[in-house]
Amino acid sequence: MLSLPLHLATLATFAIAAPSLESRQSSQLITVDTTQKFQKVDGFGFSAAFQRANLVVNLAQPKQSEVLNLLYNTTHGAGFSIVRNGIGSSVDSRNDWMNSILPVCPSSPSGTPNYVWDGKDSGQLWLSQKAVEFGVKTFYANAWSAPGCMKTNGNDANGGSLCGVSGATCASGDWKQAYANYLVKYIQLYIQSGVPITHVAFLNEPDLTTSYASMRSSGTQAADFIKVLRPTLDRNNLTSVGINCCEGTGWNIASQHAREIASAGALGSIYAITSHEYTSRINGPLSTRARAWQTEYSDLDGRWSTAWYSNGGAGDGFTWANTVFNGMVNANLSAYIFWEGIQDRATNNNNNEKLILIDGQNYFVSKRLWAFAQFRIVRPGAVRVAASSSSSSQLKSGAFVNTDGSVAVVAINSGTAAQTVGVKLGAETLGDRVVKAWYTDNSKDMGEVQAAISSDGTTASVSVPGRAMVSFLVK
Ligand SMILES: *[C@@H]1O[C@H](CO)[C@@H](O)[C@H](O)[C@H]1NC(C)=O
Ligand SMILES: *[C@@H]1O[C@H](CO)[C@@H](O)[C@H](O)[C@H]1NC(C)=O
Ligand SMILES: *[C@@H]1O[C@H](CO)[C@@H](O)[C@H](O)[C@H]1NC(C)=O
Questions:
Q1: Helices of type H across 236-312
Q2: How far apart, in Å, do the first and last CA atoms of the chain sit?
Q3: Beta carbons of 80 and 44 less than 8 angstroms apart
Q4: Domain match, 33 and 71 both
Q5: What is the pLDDT of residues 383-413, one digit of tens each?
Q6: Does the residue 131 lie in any domain?
Q7: Tell me, what's the pLDDT at 23?
Q8: Which of 84, 104, 375, 473 has the CA that lies 20 to 30 A from 116?
Q9: Residue 405 CA to chain centroid, in angstroms?
């Protein structure tokens, strides 16, 4: 199908253009109501945990800068606004483990810990410092496990629980306070290195035991620790650091965590309930007063793919456009974080766990990254507002008001044919506003298209190819 945006732009009032090709396209109107407000947005992000950050550290210029721009640039890349770092718990950096700042514990919980800071944190510190340079303000530090010496199984891998939470007693004593102090130390080391950690989590997939760093916990056990961590952060002048919990493997588990933390009286001490989407997908808003973040998901099975649309597969960019849209628009998420931003070819079976494949000194960009880029106009602090399209089965739409007053509209053409998509902010005249629009499909990556303004000045329209995602920014 021919793409028509340039031609369209030359028409002053395309709506009345008589027998043109455009007028034969079906058209959809998105009506935004900025007075109807929903959740606040914290942002979109990725992780470079398990030493993947080093892949960028080790890239030569100019490719290193190119990859950094793809990740962080808000006008030419994905414009990610959240970096999720793994807090290492392993005794060393064998395999792809993340090493801990406390490789050896004191002999008792009240002993003086001997912290060891290598100034690298598996490459994550450098990648975070670069994010700061691009203006990123949200840094999410997430431990997969406590150091092994604080756990029932004496190992940071293979499950086990934190000594001292309900149902987990250890001969060596109660390590809750020591673990809270350790997390504070990690946050302080980052702050001293110019990276303000804004959110912290102390569990990852606590419903799963793995051969790498993993620690079991229920929501009730998590609440036991939250009651120690919150005052410890506050005592250390870290009141603004939010606690997130609990990174369950799926949305059903997250509901359970939310319920248990609330009944244990700890919900007021946390910032967001966090969930992954592996074992159950997001199917509507979580029932909780806290914010909700989706903090890790990817296609772990498919072969490496850079397609926008091939067959609707789990790694397709178009699939990801719909996945992120579903979380933000249908489930009131405040953040959507992909799994690995970058990964090499050798580890992890050459699959779609990553947005960018780094292979030695070369890199390859998937369309999944461009699906996230379509959301880059929704900046941290935005509030989602009501949006409806004439036919939601043909065109999905969502809208957000940014803190600078600009309105960001995201839409997905679910049909296979091109459609004319118009945006209207109630009866407001767009006269003094600047309207920009971009779309991604098999051929374009956030390709800018000129919007045509209707003769009455209320509607900005572009032609959008079949199965494309389009974003409008009305400033
Ligand atoms: C983003 O990319 C554009 C185009 O390459 C460049 O001009 C701009 O400086 C970049 N922004 C930052 C913050 O580096
Ligand atoms: C507490 O943190 C704030 C920033 O959040 C900083 O400006 C202030 O200097 C800190 N105070 C102390 C005593 O560390
Ligand atoms: C989530 O959004 C829906 C509308 O999309 C709204 O009805 C509901 O109140 C919101 N829920 C929360 C918890 O914000």
A1: 251-263
A2: 31
A3: yes
A4: no
A5: 999 999 988 889 999 999 999 999 999 999 9
A6: yes
A7: 52
A8: 84
A9: 23
Q: Is 93 in the pocket of ligand 1 (CB under 6 A)?
A: no
pLDDT averaged over the chain? 94
What's the rounded Cα separation, in Å, for the pair 466 and 86?
39
- Which among 241, 336, 242 has a CA at the least distance from the CA of 295? 336
Instruction: For residue 308, give the nearest of 375, 392, 377, 365 by alpha carbon.
Output: 365
Q: What is the largest CA-CA distance in the chain?
A: 83
102 occurs within a structural domain: yes
Q: Does the beta carbon of 239 sit less than 6 angstroms from any atom of ligand 2?
A: no
Strands (E), 138-252: 138-143, 199-201, 242-248
Q: Kindly report, residue by residue over 415-428, the tens digit of the pLDDT.
A: 999 999 999 999 89
Residue whose C-alpha is closest to residue 470's, from 391, 410, 423: 410
Tell me, using a 6 A CB cutoff, whether residue 62 lines ligand 1.
no
d(CA 452, CA 13): 7
Segment 327-338 mean pLDDT: 98
Cα–ligand 1 centroid distance for 82 (angstroms):
18
User: Do 438 and 337 belong to one domain?
Assistant: no
Nearest listed ligand to the Cα of residue 39: 3
Residues 372 and 444 placed together within one structural domain of the fold? no
Q: Is 281 in the pocket of ligand 1 (CB under 6 A)?
A: no
The protein residue whose alpha carbon is closest to atom 10 in ligand 2 is 237
Axis-axis angle for helices 63-72, 124-133 (nearest 10): 70
Strands 26-40 and 419-425, how do they pair? parallel
285 within ligand 3 shell (Cβ under 6 A)? yes
Looking from the CA of residue 237, the nearest atom of ligand 2 is: 1
- For 267-301, the pLDDT digits (tens) are 999 999 999 999 999 999 999 999 999 999 999 99
> Collapsing DSSP states into helix, strand and coil, what is residue 164?
coil
Instruction: Return the residue matching tokens 């990859």.
Output: 67
Q: What range defines the domain where residue 417 resides? A: 6-37+384-474
Distance (Å) from CA 315 to ligand 2 centroid: 44
Q: Does residue 368 share a domain with residue 433? A: no
* Pocket flag, ligand 3, residue 39 (CB < 6 Å): yes
Q: Does the beta carbon of 75 lie inside 6 Å of ligand 1?
A: yes
Residue 431 confidence class, pLDDT cut points 50, 70, 90: confident
Do both 288 and 429 map to the same domain? Answer: no
Which residues are 201's β-sheet partners? 142
Task: Report which protein residue has its CA nearest ligand 2's atom 3.
Answer: 237
CA 265 to chain centre: 28
Give the tens place of pLDDT for each residue, 128-137. 999 999 999 9
Distance CA 381, CA 374 (A): 17
- pLDDT higher for 332 or 20? 332
Write the residue with the smallest CA distance to atom 4 of ligand 2.
Answer: 237
Half-sphere exposure of 246 (CA within 13 A, CB side): 32
